[in-house]
Amino acid sequence: MDRTVVVIAAHAFEARAAAGVGQGMSKEPWGRWMLYRGEMWDVPLAVIRCGPGKVAAAAAAQAAVQYLEPVLFVTFGVAGASDPDLDAGTMVVPESVVDVALAELSDLPVSIPFQFVTHEQLRIKLLEVPGTVAGNLLCWEGQIASATNRPALMKDLTGALPVDWESSAVAQIADMWDVPWAALKVVSDHGESDRLRRVAAVAKRPLQWAAETMRRGCMSFLEGVVGSEWESQDTMDSSSENSEACQ
Predict the structure, then answer these.
(1) N or C terminus of the chain with fewer C-beta within 10 Å?
(2) Averaged pLDDT of the chain
(3) Pairing relation of β-strands 91-99 and 115-117?
(4) How large is the average pLDDT for residues 68-91?
(5) Domains in the chain, ordered, with CATH?
(6) C-alpha distances in angstroms, 156 versus 66, 89, 167, 182?
(7) 164 Rama class: left (phi>0) / alpha (psi -120 to 50) / beta
(8) What's the sign of the alpha-carbon dihedral 214, 219, 220, 222?
(9) DSSP class of residue 120?
(10) In contact, 46 and 21? CB cutoff 8 Å
(11) CA distance 184 to 221
(12) Residue 213 has pLDDT above 90, yes or no
């Protein structure tokens, strides 16, 4: 398999953590972004540091589709959470990503998708790694607390609810091109005034373990994909041999 595991991270410290689980990684500018390339076991790995925001993330994901042939996408990094009971360092694997701004357009006379479901098998493999918890991810480019102050939106969402800025954009590009995708987010803060200090603390060991979690989950998922491809190829070869024998 020569298609690439593509990880999209907003910030440099997130991208460095993700690239840290690769082998033979190189680093080079890629337009305005930074691209880390190497291998994760024998699978090509690319980590894109895209910068914050949905536009940057969508552009990076689309460029990856065109030039990197992604076998899967993972949006990776830290995220805030409004629930103080959700401890910093918690690794959340969301069932879906909800774009809060798009959800607020539900009164328009057209249907606008705002909730994007992660790939089930990839999500399951990530959740099988010890230390992860299930939940949903809110995508909202604003204050953390304001994203969850929407009772109508929150009533159907269960589990941990971290908030990031980029994942809904990557989800839409992945869905457009039928690329499996998931998110792995480490809770960093709850919107406190000293949140930058809290982010810096999480950016060390917790984020490094999250990167290892991502590696284990992705490789477990890909082993299943490769096995399915081998079975499919064996079936095709057998059919071809039977067809030739009948001629």
Answers:
(1) C
(2) 89
(3) antiparallel
(4) 94
(5) 4-187 (3.40.50.1580)
(6) 35, 25, 19, 20
(7) beta
(8) positive
(9) H
(10) no
(11) 15
(12) yes
